[in-house]
Fold each of these.
Amino acid sequence: MTTKFRRIGVLTSGGDSPGMNATIRAVTRAALENGVEVMGIYEGYKGLMEGNMKLFSERDVSNILNHGGTILYSARSPEFKTEEGMARAVAVCEKNQIDGIVAIGGDGTFRGATDLTLRGIPCIGLPGTIDNDITATDYSIGYDTAMNTVIEMVDRLRDTCESHARCDVVEVMGRNAGYIALNTGVAVGASIIVVDEIAFDEDAAIERVIEAKNNGKRNFIVIVAEGCEGFAEPFAKRFEQKTGIETKFARLAHVVRGGSPTLRDRVLAAQMGKEAVDLLLDGKSNLVVCIHEDKICSMDIGYALILDRMYKGKLKDGDLDAFSSEQAAEMREFCRVKAEQFRDLYNTAYLISK
Ligand code: ADP
C-alpha cells in the first residue's frame, strides 16, 4: 500500500440500483480494515462539488446491505461536467483530504471518474445499474435483482393469463440494452421477446402464437425491451387483432429498480467493492471493476468506453486512434463473442417458445 491514501471518498451517481448499499458497505469496510478513512459523499458529483459529505465509521454502513436505493442518494449534475465544476470538485477533495474516489454508477459516472483522475484525484468505477448496459462487464450490480423482480411480477400475470386465456405484453426496463428483456423473457417462458438488438419478424412470431393457441396454449407473455421505444403498447393492440387473444399491456418501470438485492448482487457488491479499494490502494486509477467469465477483473475506463461504443455500433471517427491494432482486434473479438452469446440465447428462447 502506498502511504498516500489517508482517506478515500465513495459516491453513487446516475440511476440507482439495488445493491448500491451493499457496495458502499463493502468499500467502507475494506478501506477501514486497511487503515484508510472513508468519506461518504452524498448525491454523487453534485454533492462532491458542494462538499456534502460525512466521515463514515463501520457503524454508518451497518444494516444497509439488504436495502434497495442508496443511502448516499444519487443526483445528476450537468454542472460537474464543466471546467468550473471539476475545479470545484478537486478543491473540495483537497480541502477534505480525499486522496481517491470509488464511484458507483454507469457510463456517465465513469466519464466523471476519468475527468477527476486526469485532474489528480485517482478514481475507480464500479458498475451499478440494473440495465447491465456496460459492455466491459458480464454483470452489473442490481441487474440480477431487477430481473428477479420482473420474473416475480410476470409469473403473477401469467397465472391470470392462464385462467382467462389472455396475453400480457410487458415492457421492461433496460434503457437501450435488451439484457433484462432477453433473460427475463427466457425465465418466464415468453412466447415472444422483442429487443432492439435483433430484428423482429412480427408475421412469423404471430404465426407461431396462433399455432400454439390452436394447440391448446392459454397463457401468452410477450416481453418487450424499453429500448424498442413506442413499440410495446401499439403491438399489444395488433397482437389482439391478429391472434384473437384478449391482450393487456403492462409497463414494469421503476418498480424493478427498488427492493432488496438478491444473493448474486450482494456477493458481487462485496467482491467488487473490495476490489475497488485494493486497486486504489495499489496505486491504480481510471479503472472500472468488472466480472468476466466469473472472475473479478478490471479494465481501463477509456478502453471500456470505446469497447462499449463498438458493441453498440456507435464508434465515431478517431475513437480507435489511441489503441494499437492488437487492442482494436481484441475489442472486436470481445464484441463478437458477446453478441453471439446474446443471439444464441435469443434463438434458444424462440425455439422453445411454443
Ligand atoms: P450513469 O452513470 O448511470 O450513466 P449519467 O449518465 O446520468 O448516469 O451520469 C451521472 C453523472 O456523471 C452526471 O450527472 C455527471 O455529473 C457525470 N457525468 C456524466 N457524463 C460525464 C462526462 N462526459 N464528463 C464528466 N462527468 C460526466
Note: Residues 7-142+261-314 form a domain with the Rossmann fold fold (CATH 3.40.50.450).
Amino acid sequence: MNPLPVILDVDTGIDDAFALMLAVRDPRLELRAVTCVSGNVNVDQVVTNTEYVLETAGAAHVPVARGATRPLLAEPHHATHVHGADGLGGFARPSDRRTEHLHAVELLRRELMAAIGNGETITLIPMAPQTNIAMLLRTYPEVAPGIERIVFMGGSASVGNATATAEFNVFADPEAAAIAIAAAGQLDIPMTMYGLDVFNEVLITREQAVSLRRSGDPAAQLAGALLEHQLGVFGREATTIGDAGAVCAVIEPEGLRTQKYGVRVETGGSYSRGQTIVDRRDWAGDLDDDPQGANLTTMVDIGLEVDAAGYAKLWLAALGQTP
Ligand code: BDR
Ligand code: CA
C-alpha cells in the first residue's frame, strides 16, 4: 500500500513534537509539508521548534512554512504554563534549516493544487488554533477536492482545559475554528474531531519515557526528555502523547470510535467562548424545530472513545520501542 499523504498544521509545542515524530517515522504516512501557526508559543518560536524536531527525527527535507502570527480576532493566548517559555520545556534548540519563503496558506495551496493535478488527495491534520486552515478554506476554496479529510485536534464534547468549557486550540482562535468547521461543511470536506474526550487517554508511563530517553535514537531521546518534563508539569506517573493521538487516528482509524454530530463554536458567550457545542440530540422533531437551525450545522465525526493502549503502542513502535 502506498503511504497516505498528510500535512500537519502545528504550534510546536511538546505534544506537537510527538505528533511530528510519528508522522515522520510511521511508514504508513508520507509527510508532505508542515505549516506553523501562533498557538502554544509565538509563531517564530513554533517555526524554530518545528524545524528542530523535524531535523532531529531525520526529516530535514520536509517543507515548513510560517503562518498566522496571531488569531483572526482574539488577542493572542499562549500555553507556556504547559509547554515552557520556549514551547519545548527548555529543550528547544536553533536549527540550520531554511523555512519556505511561502506563507503557510500558500504552501498548503501549492501542495493541495499539486495533489489535485496528480489525481491525489491529502489528509490535513491541524493540531493548533485553526487560523491557517480558516484562511486557506476561505481564500482558496478550490483546494477542497485535494483534501481527503480533516482530522483536527481541538474542541471537546465534555470538559475544557483552557477554560471550564473550552479546549485550548479552539479557545485561542474561536472565530477561526468556527470558520474552518463551517467551510468544511460547505465544501463537503469530511471532518473528524479528535478532542479532549480522547486526547488525554493515550498515556506513556515514566518507565517508558526513561527508556525512550536512554535509547540511541536522537528523536526518541528528545521524546523521552519531553515526556519526563510533562510528567513533572502535571505531577503524574503517566502522561499523554496529546496531539500525536490525532496522527494515530489517521494511521489506524479503527482505534477511534466516532459518532456524527452537528458542531458549532461559541464565539460570543462570557464563560463559554471557544466551547465546541456538540449537538447530541437525536430526535428529528426537536432538531427540525430548533429556532437556531440545528440542521445548518456541519456534521463532524466526533471521537468519543479511543484504543488508548493500541495508540500508545503504535507511537512507541514508531520510535523504535517494542514491548
Ligand atoms: C492542545 O493545546 C495545545 O497546548 C496542545 O499542543 C494541543 O494541541 C490541547 O488542548
Ligand atoms: Ca498543538
Note: The chain has 13 helices and eleven strands.
